[in-house]
């Protein structure tokens, strides 16, 4: 039996799947296998669906349901805002965790589309509340909830436009994307937290307007709405926890590592052979 050259014996220890290779090491194949075994963030998504279902139950049991051409038009607002700026926005943030082994372009397009759907649904919710106020002669934009809501909506729209310009528009350079990515992640998480806070303010405002002093007597509607508030907060914590978990982050693919190496070579003068 022919003994392999020394260089081949050395290389075999670093090849994926070899006996001497470290777990998860050895390039994208070993890394993908390790990531495939990592637990997914499905509980966070189930919690988000529970938030939407509880919101529908609250509006159906104690607020008469939803309708556009009636006094129930106002109820379109909280339902759309929870679906759009809480559930779908949270799901959009988790796309890179749920589909962390898929092609990056596919994941990126899904991330952008979820944000588009969230924006459209939230816009319907805004139109519903302004139209309801106009029909009934109510004042607009006087409460802290309404100020925060407009701020969140504008920031969300700006964040989507800037993100589209940098990450989906073909004219953006790799260096610009790399420099902006940390800011994009930070402002995305910040807007999500502001959305949750605004939803909690609106929930409390709706309870005080209807229940008044009866809120302190543990009315069934108040108890259910309090549970909804806790679910909203829990969903926010779950999303942020999943986003910050290192073992649930999307692993770099081979083509992305090649692009990073080329960018480093161009900007720092390093050669791939020196790494």
From TrEMBL:
Catalyses which reaction(s): monodehydro-L-ascorbate radical(out) + L-ascorbate(in) = monodehydro-L-ascorbate radical(in) + L-ascorbate(out)
Topology of the protein relative to the lipid bilayer: Multi-pass membrane protein
UniProt main location, coarse: membrane
One GO cellular component term: lysosomal membrane
Transmembrane segments: 46-64, 76-97, 109-130, 150-172, 184-203, 223-243
Family annotation (InterPro entries): CYB561/CYBRD1-like, Cyt_b561/ferric_Rdtase_TM
Compartment(s) where it occurs, according to its Swiss-Prot or TrEMBL record: Cytoplasmic vesicle, Secretory vesicle, Chromaffin granule membrane
Disordered: region residues: 1-25
Domain of life according to the entry: Eukaryota
Keyword list, A-Z: Cytoplasmic vesicle, Electron transport, Heme, Iron, Membrane, Metal-binding, Translocase, Transmembrane, Transmembrane helix, Transport
Biased composition (Basic and acidic residues): 1-11
Pfam families: Cytochrom_B561
Gene Ontology terms describing biological process: ascorbate homeostasis; intracellular iron ion homeostasis
Record GO terms (molecular function): metal ion binding; oxidoreductase activity; transmembrane monodehydroascorbate reductase activity
SMART domains the UniProt entry points to: B561
Cytochrome b561 domain mapped to chain residues: 43-244
Function: Transmembrane reductase that uses ascorbate as an electron donor in the cytoplasm and transfers electrons across membranes to reduce monodehydro-L-ascorbate radical in the lumen of secretory vesicles. It is therefore involved the regeneration and homeostasis within secretory vesicles of ascorbate which in turn provides reducing equivalents needed to support the activity of intravesicular enzymes.
Name this protein carries in UniProt: Transmembrane ascorbate-dependent reductase CYB561
The organism of origin for this protein: Equus caballus
Gene that this polypeptide is encoded by: CYB561
